[in-house]
Amino acid sequence: MTNQTKLQAAVFLDRDGVLIHDVDYLSDLKDIHIYEDVPEALSKLKKAGFLLIMVTNQSGVARGYFDEKFVEASYGNIQASLQNQSATLDGMYFCPHHIIGRPPYNIKCNCRKPLPGMILEAEKQFNIDLSRSYMLGDKLCDVELAKNSRTVGLLLKTGYGKSQAAVISEKYPDVKIFNRFFEAANYILDQAYQG
Ligand SMILES: [Mg+2]
Q1: Which pLDDT belongs to residue 21?
Q2: What is d(CA 137, CA 72) in angstroms, rounded to the nearest whole number?
Q3: Who's near 37: CB < 8 A, 6+ residues apart?
Q4: Cα-to-centroid distance, 68 and ligand 1 (Å)
Q5: Fold classification of 10-194 (topology level)
Q6: Which of 14, 22, 31, 129 is flagged as catalytic?
Q7: Can you give the pTM of this predicted structure?
Q8: Catalytic pick from 16, 28, 90, 129?
Q9: How far is CA 105 from the centre of its chain?
Q10: Ligand 1 centroid distance, CA of 38 (Å)
């Protein structure tokens, strides 16, 4: 008999254009606006037993637009808003790097999406079953992150999703596309209950 902890499934969530409106290099906490349908949908996913983990590229750090503390503060701000609706996230990973940025951030990292570093780190830290997990994003890099981490990628038409949907569905016809966050969440819940 082994005494293994049961692995949990997770929903990995992009930040900009998925949880909050994308304002291009958010650098002021006042510009954080959570999509209206997000808190209730997160709360349902949480109740169904999914871990909720944000994974976000924040190359604005490398580019000198803001620092790592600001990215943490933004997460804190989002968490505070979600708390009222029992929809808080379980964790956040961000990639501050970019090859054309300032040192020490101008490195060839393994965490910048679509590379799977952030998800692999979360997998270890939270004991996640990636094969039952999902990645929700609004860009090609999110969909490719899902491929690279063997999670199920879902594309939202919020944020950049609307403009990237055609290219993505041509390249990856198996990827499901949803207009709104709650629709993708309902799809995940349906799959989980069937499964
Ligand atoms: Mg995004």
Answers
A1: 98
A2: 20
A3: 180, 181, 182
A4: 18
A5: Rossmann fold (3.40.50)
A6: 14
A7: 0.96
A8: 16
A9: 21
A10: 14
- The C-alpha atoms of residue 87 and residue 43 are separated, in whole angstroms, by 4
C-alpha 2 – ligand 1 centre gap (Å): 40
Stated length of the chain: 195
Question: Would you call 16 a catalytic residue per the annotation?
Answer: yes
User: How far is Cα 176 from Cα 96, in angstroms, rounded to an integer?
Assistant: 29
Q: Which amino acid is at 80?
A: A
Distance 156 CA to ligand 1 centre (A): 9
Q: How many other CB atoms are found less than 10 A from the CB of residue 17? A: 23
Asked if 152 and 178 count as a contact pair (C-beta separation under 8 A), the reply is no
Tell whether the torsion through CA atoms of 24, 26, 32 and 35 is positive or negative.
positive
Is residue 14 annotated as part of the catalytic site, yes or no? yes
CB 112 within 8 A of CB 59: yes
φ/ψ (deg, to 5) at 110: -115, 15
Structure tokens at 32: 């954080």
Helix (H, G, I), strand (E, B) or coil at 119: helix
Q: Which residues pair with 55 in a beta bridge?
A: 93
**For residue 5, how far is its CA from the centre of ligand 1 (angstroms)?**
32
List pLDDT tens digits, range 53-85.
999 999 999 999 999 999 999 999 999 999 989
- pLDDT tens per residue across span 124-179: 999 999 999 999 999 999 999 999 999 999 999 999 999 999 999 999 999 999 99
